[in-house]
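Work Package 3 (structural annotation) set out to generate three-dimensional models for the target panel prioritized at the project kickoff. During this period the team completed the workflow that converts sequence records into discrete structure tokens, so that structures can be stored uniformly alongside our sequence database. As a representative example, we reproduce one entry of 91 residues exactly as it appears in the project archive.
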Amino acid sequence: MACWPDSSRILCQLNNIDGTLEYQGEFLPYGKKRSIPPSAVRIDAEKTREDKVWVGEALVPLVYLQTGDILVPLVKYDESVRLLQRRGRTQ
């Protein structure tokens, strides 16, 4: 999993073990945060393994950053929010 700022948005890409692209798309900050500075886009690899949503054929993780922020796939924002709320994660 890798994420990077691109203009005013954040893109993330998921590759499988052999490097084949599984998913790439725009991710949004969970909750009330409107933006995340580029320097803060550092993934917490351990926590990022916890929560995932299906996007087409790919099981895409919600991306936990070292700052404590969470990035969720734009195309599955509502489903991701419900998952986080069920897990007790507040906005």
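The beta strands are 2-6, 9-15, 21-29, 52-55, 58-61, 63-64, 70-73.
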